[in-house]
Design goal:
This protein has 309 residues and is mainly alpha-helical. It contains 14 helices and 2 strands; from the N terminus they run αααβαααβαααααααα. The chain has a two-stranded antiparallel sheet with strand order 1-2. Bound molecules: iron/sulfur cluster (2 copies).
Amino acid sequence: MVGGAVLLSLLFKGRTFCRFICPLGGFIGVYSQMSPLALRAKDEVVCKGHKEKGCVLGNGCGYGCPWLENPPTMQHSTNCGLCMECVRTCDRSNISFGLRWPDNLAGVPGRVEEAYQAVVFASVGILFTVVLFGPWGSVRTWLDASGMSGRFAYVGILAGVGLLGVPALLWGMSGLLARVPGSSGLTARTLWVEFSHALVPLGMAVWMAFALAALSNGLPHVPQVLADPMGRGWNLFGLGDVSWPRLLPGRLAYAQTALVLAGLVWGIVAWRHRVLMLVPAGKLSAWSMALPVGVLTATATGLLWVLLG
Ligand code: SF4
Ligand code: SF4
């Protein structure tokens, strides 16, 4: 009992669970980079001269940042929950909240952990889309028919491809890019991190297209679930015979296509922007644009084929 309590307190101390274990925390953090709304310190010099640092340590007006961010130096939105506590505790009115360039276009260098999360979430989103909405009914039949062993195999495939296979493939592409003439000495690691950040818009488009399809398919069944939430054959409120209309009937494919194309264009712009932060425009080799843009375009094309095919 005491051991369990100690384990729980260790797990949640310093938001360990939220920051390093919970996949939802990582998911929300990665796609927060797309937000045009962000909170930042207005003037670094003011922060440097402020010893009390109420935004970090807390004061009479409120807590120190509950998300354990460091508002004076925060450049990424990934670990900011927009709780606004630092706005209350900053007694120098040095925190601003408003419209700004999303992180992947804002000129801040990428970070390895976020890069890895971006690749994993994009890969898993694509795999989910392929399995649930792709033209391969045999995959779904296999999953339905093979019970738990099939489910475990599916989780194993998802983990193998998403956690290792795709990150390794992109590392290979980055290694190739680092070797071509004109890469200006950029390492495979730097190119991998920056490309992964440029993948965020397409990853988000994948999830939005996936969610639209899931919503469209699921919406007609909501009244039946409300009528019999425990699966006991009830017909609460007489909703058992009601069916809601599908979402965007006949237009779902257009909406998904628009999302994927927007993700592709944003990804290409983000890649160009990010690579130009590292290499002067005149020294950028054609390969440095062609290969990553080709990978993004091939991914988006394959995805559209799966969604529309
Ligand atoms: S309290 Fe305000 S001025 Fe002080 S460090 Fe934090 S953001 Fe900067
Ligand atoms: S808004 Fe909340 S989570 Fe974000 S930096 Fe301020 S205190 Fe931390």
